């Protein structure tokens, strides 16, 4: 649970292009994958980007973590994103959901959800 000095930021449908899939045919072409990201950090003391955690920096961490790699499992991709975001020292909690469409014929998508909270 967040304390009153924490702020929660959500980035929804951050589209990444990556290789994802356990089968050889899935590794031939990168696919567009939506990422849903939520993170907490210390509330800025003023309305200033210089004091805040810039969303673009977080986005760039995510893209760097996945766009030049190959993943067999959606779970592994979600964990790579989580690790990239939690490496920012001001982040106290991260929640990542990665969605793989058409993974099952009977379902719209399969998602993996991973979460981490800094322990003090």
Side-by-side strand order of the widest sheet: 3-1-2-4-5
Helix/strand-derived category reads alpha+beta
- Rough outline: elongated
Topology pattern, helix = H, strand = E: EEHEHEE
Number of alpha- plus pi-helical segments: 2
Could you estimate the helical fraction of the residues in percent? 10-25%
- Overall pLDDT score: 91
Q: Please outline the major beta sheet.
A: 5 strands, mixed
Percent range for β-strand residues? 35-45%
Q: What is the number of beta strands?
A: 5
Weakly predicted, low-confidence segments: none
Rg (C-alpha, Å): 15 Å
Distance between the termini: 14 Å
Could you characterize what this model shows?
This protein has 120 residues and is α+β, with helices and mostly antiparallel strands. The chain contains two helices and five strands, in the order E-E-H-E-H-E-E. The chain has helices at residues 55-66, 74-86, and strands spanning 6-20, 31-42, 70-71, 91-101, 109-117. Strands 3-1-2-4-5 form a five-stranded mixed β-sheet. A hairpin with a 7-residue loop joins strand 4 and strand 5. Helix 1 packs across helix 2 (74-86). The protein is elongated. The two termini are 14 Å apart. 21% of the residues are buried. The mean pLDDT is 91.
């Amino acid at each position: 649970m967040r304390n009153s000095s924490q702020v929660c930021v959500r980035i929804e449908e951050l589209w990444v292009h990556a290789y994802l899939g356990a089968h050889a045919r899935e590794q031939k072409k990168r696919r567009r994958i939506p990422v849903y990201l939520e993170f907490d950090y210390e509330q800025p003391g003023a309305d200033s980007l210089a004091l805040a955690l810039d969303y673009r920096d977080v986005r760039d961490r995510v893209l760097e973590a996945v766009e030049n790699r190959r993943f067999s499992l959606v779970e592994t991709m979600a964990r790579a994103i989580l690790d990239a975001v939690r490496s920012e020292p001001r982040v106290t909690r991260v929640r990542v959901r990665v969605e793989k469409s058409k993974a099952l014929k009977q379902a719209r998508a399969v998602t993996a959800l991973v979460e981490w909270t800094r322990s003090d």
